[in-house]
Amino acid sequence: MGKPTPPFGVSKLNPPKWFRFQTAVRGFQRGQIHFLQKDEAADQLSISKIGAEVECCPKVSLFVPKPDQFLVARSTLPRYPTPQAEYHFGLVADLDLNSRDPQEFIWRLGRPKGRVVKLSSRQQRDRFTVVWDEELELRSSTATRNRSMEPAGVFEPRRLLLAFCDYSGIAYKIDALTGKVFQRWVIADGDGNEPKPFKAEWATIKGDFIWVGSIGFEWYGTSGEILHRNAEWVKVIDSNGWIRNLDWHPVYQAIRTATNTTLPGFLWHEAVEWEPVRRLWLMLPRFASNSSKYTPGLEHQDTTNMLIIADESFVNIEVKRLDHHEPGYGFTSIRRLPGSRHLFMVLRVKETAESQHTQAAIVDLEGNFYTDPPYIQVGSRKYEGLAFL
């Protein structure tokens, strides 16, 4: 029997030509700026200059296109700085309808800042806690149907702080110092030719592209019929803002098969992260059911503690269960701890008609917790965006 074929075409996409060249420069010192000259005639890249060393984030790459030239600031091998005592991060809340100012035509959000602090300990396993700093207010006057600033994902690619609104489809650039927000892209639903905005629920960096996804399953009409599968599309955005639309239906189906959530069940995604060192997709679904279709308003009864680990082609999918599950709490974000080979910060949210609450934890892919208590209280809001600063 031959090697199994990936269930979708994502891994077969032609990467940028400079990306294929990366393996040829692995011998150079990590953390250098490599100037790569594009040679159209030879269909290859050649090194024109090697610059001075720079500090590179191990999680993302800086990709700045220039005329006939690319400037790539990245480590040719995964670079892990010495583990730090503190890791600064920011959160963004999704307040739904409550983000609208009652007096002005403006939408406001609070963006609290905090630090993951490593505790001094002689224990075999590291321990962390969270210390909170000041809160920064974010403002926008752009809306869709009187709704705006409901970000479901926030992260810091290429030293830009970006947030994606799950209602308007707008991608915002956030000024981390002033709290000002700027429209960067408006993302259309489905294959990109739909009039409705894309319901962005997760975002991550893979290579030098931003990958943005939605909840990942079919949408039903009032009679129970399937109306469309727009939420199964994924958007891949390059450094110029060009958006490629990928049909991830086979991907999501492979995941649902592995998790036993195929029809009549469902699996709702909000926390997805690409892990570049081991080249793994990490997913912490918020809701899951193996026996009933999605019914609006009832999904909060179906929170889950699943951790999904898949290879790049989604051929090998592993499903684990995290301890300390509490009914009502579902995951909304996952981000790798900067400089760490194996630790991740996760958020989980409990949402009812009367209240919202968020908790955070530091975990590894074996399901071990590095916070004590396992989940740290964040606050009485629904935080769906997490970015290390």
Task: Give the H and E element order.
Answer: HEEEEEEEEEEEEEEEEEHEEEEEEEEEEE
Tell me the overall shape. globular
Class per helix and strand makeup: mainly beta
Helix tally equals: 2
Q: Low-confidence segments, ≥5 residues, pLDDT <50? A: 3-82, 96-108, 143-151
Strand order of the largest sheet: 2-1-4-3
Rg estimate, integer Å: 21 Å
CATH fourth-tier homologous superfamily of the largest domain: Apyrase
Give the rounded overall mean pLDDT.
74
CATH architectural type of the largest domain: 6 Propeller
CATH level 3 topology of the largest domain: Neuraminidase
Number of strands: 28
Helical content (DSSP H or I, runs of 4+): under 10%
Oligomer: single chain
Number of domains: 2
Assigned CATH class of the largest domain: Mainly Beta
Sheet with the most strands?
A: 4 strands, antiparallel
Describe the structure concisely for a colleague:
Belongs to the apyrase family. The protein is mainly β and 389 residues long. Helix content is 4%, strand content 44%.
Please provide a written account of the structure.
- This protein has 389 residues and is mostly beta strands.
- It folds into two domains: 10-73, no CATH class; 86-388, Apyrase (Neuraminidase).
- 4% of the residues lie in helices and 44% in strands.
- It is built from two helices and 28 strands.
- It has helices spanning 17-20, 249-259; strands spanning 32-39, 44-53, 62-66, 69-73, 86-93, 107-118, 128-140, 151-155, 161-165, 170-174, 181-186, 202-206, 209-213, 219-220, 226-228, 233-237, 243-247, 266-268, 271-275, 280-284, 287-289, 306-311, 317-321, 329-336, 343-351, 356-364, 376-379, 383-388.
- The chain has a four-stranded antiparallel beta sheet, with no helix packed on it. A four-stranded antiparallel beta sheet has the order 7-6-5-28, with no helix packed on it. A four-stranded antiparallel beta sheet has the order 8-9-10-11, with no helix packed on it.
- The longest helix has 11 residues, at 249-259.
- Mean pLDDT is 74; it is low at 3-82, 96-108 and 143-151.
- This is Soluble calcium-activated nucleotidase 1.
- Its cofactor is Ca(2+).
- Keywords: Calcium, Hydrolase, Metal-binding.
